Amino acid sequence: YYTDYIDGFDKYGGGLRAFSLRDGKAVEITPPPLRKGIIGRYDLIFGADRVVFDYKERDGEGFRIYEAAVDGSSWRPVTFPPPDEQELIRKYRARNLDFWAGKPIRYTHHTDDMHPAYLPDGGIVFVSTRCQYAILCDGPDVFTTSVLYRMNADGSGMKRLTNSAVSESAPSITNDGRILYTRWEYVDKGAVSVKCLWAVNPDGTGCVEIFGNDIDFPDTCNVGRAIPGFDNLYVYI
Questions:
Q1: Which pTM does this prediction carry?
Q2: How far apart, in whole angstroms, are the C-alpha atoms of residue 67 and residue 69?
Q3: pLDDT tens, position by position, 186-218
Q4: Is residue 125 within 8 Å of 116, Cβ to Cβ?
C-alpha cells in the first residue's frame, strides 16, 4: 500500500466532481489550480456542503489536505509541509543514496498527509508520515509508515493519535463516533498478512480490534465503513 504514495504515481491531472442523480449534471469541485495533480481519498462533511481530500501536485512533494465547497465556489489548503521539510529531504535522501549506488531516487523523502475524514466534534482525522517511521521490511524508504493524526478544522492543534510501527490507513467514522481504520503490524503474524480493522476514540484512547486480526484470508481489510443503523456491521475491501 505504501508504494502508492512513495513511488506509485506517474500520471498527473484530474479532479473531483459532484454528480446529481436527479438530473445527471456534474459540478466540478476542484478549482483549475488543483486539476493538474492527483486527488487521493475524500470525505463528505455531515452537513453535505463541504468535502475534504488529499492532493499531490507533483513528484518531489507530498500529499496535503484540502477542503472545498461541493458547489465548487471555494477551496482552501488545510495542511502544509512541516517547517523542516526541506531539511528532512536533504538529510534522508543523502543517507539513502549509498543504498541505491548513486542511482536517481524518485521518492525524495518528503512527508505525506492523506486519507482525511471529518470527525463529529468538528475536527479532521487523517493519516500522515510525519511520525518519520519506516516500514520494517523496507528500510531504505524512510517515512513509509503512516499513522493516525487529528487536527482542528482549520489545520491547527495537530495531534498524533497512534504510534504503530507499520502503516495505518483509510480512517472513517463509526456510528458511535469512533475512528475505524486499517492497521498493519507484525505481532504474532507474517509480514504480508494480516492488515485488519481497528477502532479508536477521537482522542486516541480505547484502541481495539474490530475484525480480522486472527485470520489469514482475506489478508487485508481496507477502507472499512460502518453500515448505518447497525453497531456491529461493517463493509470493507
A1: 0.92
A2: 7
A3: 877 776 667 899 999 999 999 999 998 888 788
A4: yes
